[in-house]
Write a structure and sequence with these properties.
With about 290 residues, this protein is an alpha/beta fold. It is built from nine helices and 14 strands.
């Protein structure tokens, strides 16, 4: 397959919904990023570029979508590549509120396909300000069903996979993104691996890349709070759970979606060294994977 048939996945953001640094956080771990914008990180988002058909897709519409669309444009320019769809995982702030930029006050998109599960679609259709996007035809909702592939082209399919999470407004999914040669699993938010009907270890074996929820690194990260009830797998827990996998399987795991308190955001932190030492890796903005 020549460069034209390439399907590439690009990581456009690695932080939890609120980004890094987080609004109102002036603690020592956030201050370096306020002082030095190069240390700032955007909310978690991926893009998939299909070079042959000159299209690009976005996974998550984050509050940082402006910058993310620009970074995507620098790799796959708007004049040559059309934005052919946005896939949403759920209705938490960092994952869908960027849709506002497709509206009348901003880009004024026309019929941009937005792929969403039934409750997510219903939420967007029935609540302001999102319903205006639907009513004015800025976005066109495309239905998804758990485990059902959406075939985008001969060489790209996307499969939503339901996961347990705090579902106040919508269900929550991860995605399997199936390219011509490789498959990526993207699960930015899940309560705990043990609560899922599927085994994460088995899922990793079926894919080439696994971009997994790493909101918090360890218990004790949020001050004055026992976090054992916090609905996210700690990176320490995930590494423990997956430590029996072979080195080859561990190498597929790329941790993502870091809360502002997560030391994986800090270059060469002890946490980063631990993850590497255990055979796993962590996402960086601009990271590219060939699918």
């Amino acid at each position: 397959s020549g460069p034209q048939s390439r399907v590439q996945l690009i990581i456009l953001g690695v932080a939890q919904d609120a980004g890094y640094p987080q609004a109102g956080c002036y603690k020592p771990h956030c201050m370096p990023a306020w002082r030095d914008p190069s240390k700032q990180r955007l909310a978690t988002s991926l893009a998939v570029i299909e070079h042959q058909n000159k299209v690009k897709y976005l996974f998550e519409a984050t509050p940082d979508i402006k910058t993310q669309l620009f970074r995507l444009h620098e790799i796959a320019p708007d004049e040559q590549y059309s934005l052919a769809g946005v896939f949403l995982t759920h209705a938490h702030m960092g994952h869908y509120t960027g849709l506002m930029h497709f509206g009348r006050e901003a880009m004024g998109s026309q019929n941009l396909p937005v792929y969403a599960m039934p409750k997510m679609s219903s939420f967007l259709t029935n609540n302001g300000p999102w319903q205006q996007l639907v009513k004015l035809g800025n976005i066109k909702l495309k239905p998804l069903a758990d485990g059902q592939p959406t075939k985008l082209s001969a060489q790209l399919s996307v499969v939503p996979v339901k996961v347990p999470h705090r579902d106040e407004y919508s269900e929550t999914v991860g995605y399997k993104i199936i390219g011509p040669n490789k498959t990526a699993l993207f699960i930015p938010d899940i309560d705990k691996w043990q609560k899922w009907k599927l085994s994460i270890a088995e899922q990793i074996k079926q894919v080439d890349f696994a971009l997994l929820d790493a909101t918090f690194f360890a218990n004790g990260e949020l001050p004055n709070r026992d976090m054992s009830e916090v609905p996210h797998p700690f990176v320490e827990e995930s590494m423990q759970l997956l430590n029996t996998l072979s080195d080859e399987q561990k190498a597929k795991v790329i941790f993502i979606h870091f809360n502002h308190s997560n030391p994986l955001l800090i270059e060469n932190s002890h946490a980063q060294q631990q993850v590497r030492k255990n055979g796993f890796s962590f996402a960086n903005e601009g990271m590219m994977l060939d699918l």
